[in-house]
């Protein structure tokens, strides 16, 4: 598991038995990106961590990249669900699946909507299915 951009590293608590590797030093299968404080971008530019993923040979890239956002980026011109973003990820070999959830439905302490983006490498993408945690969850 690799973690970038998560000051508290909550993923260590979510998956305490998983080995944590720093993605800069080793290849990882799962990369979790916390984007809760991210501001709306003014252009479709790539982030530095995206450049790192793209610079790795395709077979060594993470199999699954999960991004955790506030719910409002679904409306951003250059947000995680925008055509520019999804096309960019498709071009480097990833399928994009996004879903809004209420944090309390997955044992979160704060009642807030969150947007989860799951980017799966194309060679395993057909296996990705959202769990039916709640019938009222929105799939984008």
UniProtKB/TrEMBL annotation:
This is Uncharacterized protein. The lineage of its organism: Eukaryota, Sar, Stramenopiles, Ochrophyta, Bacillariophyta.
């Amino acid at each position: 598991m690799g973690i970038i951009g998560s000051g508290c590293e909550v993923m260590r608590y979510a998956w305490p038995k998983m080995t944590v590797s720093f993605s800069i030093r080793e290849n990882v299968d799962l990369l979790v990106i916390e984007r809760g404080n991210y501001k709306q971008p003014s252009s479709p530019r790539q982030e530095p961590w995206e450049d790192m993923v793209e610079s790795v040979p395709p077979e060594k890239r993470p199999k699954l990249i999960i991004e955790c956002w506030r719910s409002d980026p679904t409306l951003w011109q250059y947000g995680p669900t925008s055509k520019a973003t999804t096309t960019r990820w498709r071009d480097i070999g990833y399928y994009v699946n996004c879903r809004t959830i209420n944090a309390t439905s997955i044992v979160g302490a704060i009642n807030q909507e969150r947007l989860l983006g799951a980017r799966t490498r194309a060679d395993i993408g057909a296996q990705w299915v959202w769990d039916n945690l709640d019938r009222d969850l929105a799939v984008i």
